[in-house]
Recover the amino acids of this structure.
C-alpha cells in the first residue's frame, strides 16, 4: 500500500528522464535511406564544360559529394573549408542543387573552386534520387562507389575529424586548421 | 452599440473558424485526368511527411522539397503508379521517416505497440482498483455508524 504512493513520483521521474534525453537529440539527423547503396546514376550536364556526364564521371574514390547552391548561405560558410580539404588532396565532387548555372560559375570564379567537377541539377532530380532535402549536404563515396556517410549542414573541421577522417587519412588535423587560416 | 460590436466580433470569429481548414493546405493547381487520381493525390500528400519541416505533411508544407515531392507524386499518379509503388519510391529515398504510417519494423515496433499496451495496462489498473475497493472492508461502517446515518437521513430538514 505504501509503495503505491510513489507511483506518480516514479512516473514523473521516467517522463522527466525521457524529456531530458530529448533535449540532446537532433531531430534533423535523419537516417540516410541510401546508405550502403551505389550512388544513383544520372545524365546531367557538367557545370563548367557543359558536357553530359553520368555517375562514372565520379571516378576518383573515396571522395566527397557536396550538395551546394548559391542561394544557400551555409554553403558560403563551409566553402573555405572545402577549399582547404581540396588542397589536402581530398577529391570533392559538387552537386549544384536547384541553382542557376550562371550564378554558380560566377561563385566559383570569385570564391575559388574546390570541386573536381560539378553535376548541374537545376530540377533537383539527382538530389531527389539521392534523398537530399536541403543544402548543404555532404556525402562520402567509398572506394567501391557506395554511399558510406551523409552529413546534413555545414561541414567543418570538427565534423570532418569526427565523422569523415577515416576515409581520408591524408588529412592531418593541424594542417587543415593552419590551411584554413591561410584561406581566410 | 454593444450589440453591434458583439455581432461584429462573432461574425469575425465565425469567418475565421470557417476559413481555418482551408488556409492550412498550400494552394496549387494540378490538372488531374480523373477525380479518382485527385482523391488519391490528396490522400497520399497528407500521408507523406515533409523531410525538411518535420511536423508537416507535404500537402501543408511550403518547403521547396515538399513542393518537389508533390510534383513527383502528381507525375507518378498520372503515369499510373500504384499507392504502394509511390510509397516505395519515397521510402527508398527518404526512409520510413517520410510516412506518417510507417511499416512495422524494429524501430517502429514500440510506436505501433504502445497504444495497445497502454490500453491493456490502463484497463488492468482500473480493474484491480475496482476489485480492491469492492473487496476492502476497511471503509465498511459499523452498525452504530449506519444507525446514525439512518437517523440523520430521517430527520426533517430545517
Amino acid at each position: 500500500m505504501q509503495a503505491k504512493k510513489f507511483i506518480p513520483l516514479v512516473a514523473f521521474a521516467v517522463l522527466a528522464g525521457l524529456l531530458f534525453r530529448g533535449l540532446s537529440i537532433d531531430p534533423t539527423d535523419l537516417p540516410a535511406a541510401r546508405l550502403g547503396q551505389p550512388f544513383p546514376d544520372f545524365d546531367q550536364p557538367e557545370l563548367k564544360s557543359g558536357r553530359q556526364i553520368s555517375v562514372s564521371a565520379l571516378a576518383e574514390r573515396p571522395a566527397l559529394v557536396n550538395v551546394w547552391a548559391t542561394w544557400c548561405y551555409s554553403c558560403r560558410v563551409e566553402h573555405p573549408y572545402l577549399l582547404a580539404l581540396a588542397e589536402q588532396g581530398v577529391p570533392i565532387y559538387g552537386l549544384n542543387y536547384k541553382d542557376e548555372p550562371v550564378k554558380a560559375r560566377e561563385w566559383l570564379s570569385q570564391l575559388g573552386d574546390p570541386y573536381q567537377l560539378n553535376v548541374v541539377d537545376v530540377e533537383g532530380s539527382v538530389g531527389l534520387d539521392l534523398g537530399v532535402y536541403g543544402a548543404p549536404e555532404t556525402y562520402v563515396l567509398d572506394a567501391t562507389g557506395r554511399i558510406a556517410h551523409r552529413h546534413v549542414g555545414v561541414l567543418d573541421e570538427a565534423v570532418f575529424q569526427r565523422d569523415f577522417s577515416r576515409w581520408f587519412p591524408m588529412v592531418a588535423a593541424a594542417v587543415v586548421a593552419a590551411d584554413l587560416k591561410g584561406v581566410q | 452599440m454593444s450589440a453591434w460590436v458583439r455581432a461584429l466580433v462573432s461574425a469575425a470569429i465565425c469567418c475565421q473558424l470557417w476559413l481555418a481548414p482551408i488556409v492550412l493546405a498550400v494552394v496549387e493547381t494540378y490538372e488531374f485526368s480523373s477525380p479518382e487520381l485527385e482523391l488519391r493525390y490528396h490522400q497520399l500528400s497528407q500521408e507523406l511527411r515533409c523531410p525538411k519541416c518535420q511536423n508537416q505533411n507535404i500537402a501543408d508544407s511550403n518547403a521547396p522539397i515538399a513542393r518537389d515531392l508533390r510534383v513527383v507524386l502528381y507525375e507518378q499518379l498520372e503515369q499510373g503508379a500504384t499507392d504502394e509503388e509511390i510509397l516505395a519510391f519515397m521510402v527508398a529515398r527518404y526512409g520510413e521517416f517520410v510516412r506518417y504510417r510507417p511499416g512495422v519494423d524494429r524501430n517502429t515496433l514500440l510506436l505501433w505497440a504502445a497504444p495497445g499496451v497502454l490500453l491493456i495496462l490502463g484497463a488492468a489498473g482500473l480493474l484491480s482498483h475496482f476489485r480492491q475497493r469492492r473487496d476492502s472492508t476497511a471503509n465498511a461502517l459499523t452498525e452504530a455508524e449506519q444507525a446514525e446515518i439512518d437517523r440523520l437521513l430521517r430527520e426533517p430538514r430545517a
Remarks:
- The first helix of chain B runs from residue 2 to 24.
- The radius of gyration of chain B is 29 Å.
- Helices of chain B lie at 2-24, 35-47, 64-78, 83-94, 109-135, 143-154.
- The interface with chain A takes residues 51-52, 54, 64-65, 68-69, 72, 91-95, 97 of chain B (CB under 8 Å).
